[in-house]
Design goal:
By secondary structure, the chain is mostly helical. Helix content is 68%, strand content 0%. The protein has 9 helices and no strands. The termini are far apart.
């Protein structure tokens, strides 16, 4: 029974990990822990999955709920400080324009409020429909559309603000 259920879940692990990485701002260790917690919970509650329901959406819902609960738990302990806040990574910025623009987009996405970032990633990166995203996040479809629109506008605006004026070369 457990092996059969894992065989159904296994193809979804890369997308779950990709979503977890973005949610956790590319903290690989925490993303792996989040995915593992999701898989453990899914396998332990396998009997709750409604067949022939959307397994992928069910797994993303579990991952999303664990993430939201972890964020709420962390907010209840405000004296916990991430080490990255004290020792930011020392990196040399890339010199290719495309990489710079990609970094600006990633930074803009990371700067979005959690609800907007989650919605944007589920729809654009993971390809979920508005209905599926509403089910995963537990909000009405109108809220999904509103969050998605606001997220796209903020990313566009943030990237446009960082763009160099036309006619000038960036050196």
């Amino acid at each position: 029974m457990a092996r059969a259920s894992f065989d159904l879940i296994e193809p979804h692990i890369p997308s779950l990990r990709r979503y977890a990485l973005v949610l956790l701002r590319h903290d690989e260790q925490r993303a792996d822990d989040l995915v593992q917690d999701c898989l453990v919970r899914a396998l332990s509650r396998w009997h709750l999955w409604r067949r022939p329901g959307n397994l992928r959406a069910w797994l993303f819902t579990i991952l999303h709920n664990i993430y939201v609960n972890d964020v709420a738990r962390a907010a209840a302990r405000p004296d916990v400080v991430e080490i990255q806040d004290y020792f930011p990574a020392m990196a040399v910025p890339p010199n290719q324009a495309d990489r710079i623009q990609l970094r600006e987009v990633v930074t803009a996405i990371q700067g979005l409020p959690d609800e907007q970032r989650q919605t944007l990633l589920l729809v654009t990166m993971e390809g979920f429909s508005y209905d599926e995203t509403a089910d995963i996040t537990g909000v009405p479809i109108g809220t999904v559309m509103s969050r998605l629109s606001r997220a796209r506008d903020k990313v566009r605006g943030s990237v446009a603000e960082d763009a160099p004026p036309r006619g000038r070369r960036v050196t």
